[in-house]
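Researcher: Structure for this, please.
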Amino acid sequence: MDITRFEKFDLECSKKLPDEIKKILKKAKGQKTCAIGFITTDDFYGMYLCWDCTSEIAEYFEWKNASYPSFLYQTLVDVVDGSTDIDLCNPSDAKWDFALTLLSVLNKNIKNIPDKVFQKTGFKREDIIFFATMGDGDYMQEMLDTSVKMFNT
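Model: Predicted structure, token format:
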């Protein structure tokens, strides 16, 4: 997929994601590990963050800690609205390609978070488990499996 479709989303993530992760890690200070999830809908209409310090991704949909930063929501909505050539409501190769492109943009931005963001809160980068998935839908498990491997290597 043409990654330029995600250009504004990528730019907003590069500017604002480090501060959002810093806020989460400040709240998790004193813990040994933290899992941070990027959760989207089945049709990719927006995204939010959730986190938990149990070091288990299972049951992420029951986690009480969540934030809804506008840069993850509206800029992804704009990408979806501009992707009328893809049916994002039904499983397809094009929808999975969209998911993989989204994951690659998130991966780039996670990897670009400065180490000081982690260190200032007493964490090391390897203490954090990042993942992305859908709240429900066609590619929940595939996105979860792919993102855990991609984001945490």
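Researcher: Any notable elements?
Model: Residues 88 and 95 are 6 Å apart (CA to CA). The chain has one domain: 3-151.
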